[in-house]
Description:
Blueprint: E1 2-14, E2 17-23, H1 31-39, E3 58-64, E4 71-77, E5 83-84, H2 88-102, E6 106-111, E7 114-121, E8 124-130, E9 150-152, E10 155-161, E11 165-170, H3 179-187, E12 197-203, E13 209-215, E14 220-222, H4 226-238, E15 248-251, E16 257-260, E17 267-272, E18 274-286
Parallel strand pairs: 2-3, 4-6, 11-12, 13-15
Antiparallel strand pairs: 1-2, 1-18, 3-4, 4-5, 6-7, 7-8, 8-17, 9-10, 10-11, 12-13, 13-14, 15-16, 16-17
Amino acid sequence: MSVLNTVPFEKFHGTGNDFFVVDAEDPVPDRPAFARAHCDRDGGIVLNESERVGADGVLFLALEDRYDPPRVVMTLVQPDGSVAAMCGNGARVAAAWAAERTGSDQIMIDTPAGTRRAIVEDDDVTVEMGVPMFAPRDVPADSGEPLVETEIEGLTVTAVNTGVPHAVAFVEDVDDVDLEAVAPAVRHAPIFPEGANVTLASPDGEGGFDQRTFERGVEGETQSCGTGAVAVVAAAKRLGLVEGDDPVRVSPPGGDLSVTVPDEGSALLGGPAVREGAGEADTVFRER
């Protein structure tokens, strides 16, 4: 195929959850095709001779700086071309990107799952994540009652929506589970009409949890998943594994996140959001 034009992009990551960021003012005629091509872990973009090829998604961001605090409209297109309603690490990256342009330490992020407030302190970004929802209609799940410690395709899970649906399984050691083998059956289980992210968690012995997540739309494990981290703590509270409103450390492979799930009000997700570099990406392709 021959390239017709290009668009500038930046690369950010939040605890290893990496994204290409494109200003929505720059035209990309086919966003799903753009994401599928450039996020591919085998043939996608390689930035600054990094060992990591591709990314976990493309954030198309529209800055509206006439508001106080500034607003950014976030659209996350995943590697399979689908649009995710919410992404915790993506929202933190969006806030960092907007803060760079406005100098504001508070950013409002408009997502398909609702508007979220973010606080930016240097490289650390904390974002509101909404109230976790367990009701079957909210997950969604084809069930007459909440799925709490329910066996689904051989895995005992608790289902919760933290912006997107998660099936959370608490295990003795997340590293002892072959996630790529067990997750797809749960992710595609008929009880989840829109599919589900599959998140494993195990207590770290210090009041926090280790985490691994197989992400819907990525169709594989990611180095970090913010909605998954919030789902871990929300499910842990539901099961009585944690109590109170104090922050809980959740550790996916990419680094530590801070999660607060209060008894009332919005959950909070905090952690680093780091700019890795910038480049130009092909936007339109034509078959030869």
